[in-house]
Every structure is written in structure tokens, then in C-alpha cells.
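Q: Here's a chain of 306 amino acids. Please give me its 3D structure as C-alpha cells.
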Amino acid sequence: MDIVRLGNLQLSLFLMILIGLVLRKKNIIDEPGKRCLTDVVVNIIIPCNIIKSCLMPFEGNIFVTCSRILAAGAILQLIFMGLNHFLFNRYPDTRKKVLQYGTLVSNSGFLGYPVAEGVYGSLGLFYASVFLIPLRMVMWSVGTSYFMASHMSRRQVLQKVLTHPCLIGVYIGILIMVTQVHLPGFLTMTIKYIGSCNAAITMFIIGTILADVPFLTIFNRDSFLYSVLRLLLLPALAWGVSAALHLDAVATGIAVLMTGMPAGATTAIFAARYGSDAPFATKLTVLSTVLSMFTILFWCAVLPEP
């Protein structure tokens, strides 16, 4: 594993957040601008990034391992949904939604892929894309319903979720991955170019939210306890599920590392978009990302060698 490369990746996240913070402080991005950026990310950039992650070969000789790691991802999401029914009931509704979403969704979609490739090479990158399929499905269905449920009926939530641009991106991505259809070159390039904007724009948005949050308040009890859950307890659970499914060392490492990523950037984005506790969501994202610089190295040290 290239520790320097991983450290540079982590630091680049904070640099992009800092740029967003400065843009907000100087009012280059005002409140309407922040809302506009959020809509562009949710409706265009993230769907393209999802499709982009599925543009890879699907070889039959590793189908058995892929099916097991896919099952591991699905089982873990079911367990996380179960935990969400009772873990956060003592919190106010706006904060509870953030914690529930943050338990389901990690930053594996951005930070996870470079870590997977840096530790396990191209095979790890491929396994990561398979493992994250259940997360993608839950993220844009159950995850988004946490935020939207208070604004509409259950039927409206279901309709909104099933037709959400990001979930449509999941449908298209899975279809491309399974059929291995070759898109026209110009279309592939367009998807990749737009999808590649995801990291920078989402970090900018988090920075604009952070601009309105006193930095020292990031270090609070709830944010720290969440980080322990997200970065240590849930990946330990993923290791147990991997052992039960008899995954090999590479697949086990991917399951643990992807589960042990910090809170996803969309936690803060959706909290802001749907009127939940966006400052608290930002604290979770930033603090868990800071602490992940140490916990990712810890998991890489204790995981079995392939």
C-alpha cells in the first residue's frame, strides 16, 4: 500500500473543502448558488459518476467471488437498516435522519475506489464496484427516504425515490455492467468527464456549509461516537460477515475498507437540500474524514495479506 498516495488523497479532500469555504466566505457562492450547485450534483453529476463506476469488464472466472461479495454488501445494508430502527431514536428528528443516512452511506464511492486500487490493485477496484452495488441501491432509495419522508406521503416518497436521477443512474450502470454493452465513444467520454467533477463539486459544497459552522464545534460527543461506529464497529461487523461467507483475503479486505470509509459527502448535501441538520451533517463528514486517516491505516495493518 502506498501510504503517501493515501495521505495525499485525504489531504486533497480537505483542500477542496477549504476552497469551498473560502468561496462562501467571499460570497462568490451565495445561498442561491449553493442550492443550484447541490441540484446540479444530485441530478446530473452523481448519476454520471455512478454510471462511470460501472464502465469496466465483467469476467466470468471471478463470478463466484463477485456473487459472495455482492451478498456481503446486501447483508450489511440490511443489518445497517435494522440498526437504524433503534440506535438513534433519542435524537431530534432532523439529527436522527442525518445519523441514519450516515450509517447506511459512507464515502466509499469517492474515497473508497482509490483506496481499493492502492491496496489491492485492479482486482480490488473491481470487487469494490461489485460490493458497492447494494449500497448504491439503498443510498438512493431507503437513504433518501429518510430525508424526504417528512415532506410527502409514503406513496409520494416511493415514487420520488424510484424515479430519482441517481437511482436511474444505478439502473443504467448495472445494465451496462451485466450486458457489457459498448457505448459510443463520445457518450462514454461525456459520462466520464461529468462524473469526474463529483469529488471537487461535492467537497466545495461541504466547504460552503462548513463556512457557517464554528470549527471547534466539529469536535463534539455525538460526532465522535458516530465516527467510532462508522470507522471501527461497522467494518468489524463487515469482517464477521465476510468470514461467514468465506470470502478470500482480497474480498474481505474490500468489504472491511469500503464499510470503514467516513461519512459520505451526500450526508451534508441531502441534509441541506431537504431541510435537516446540515451543520451537524457537516461535522460528521469532516470529523469522520479526519479520523479515517488513521483508521484506514489501522485496518490495512490488521487485515490478512492476500
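Q: Can you summarize the key feature?
A: The mean pLDDT is 84.
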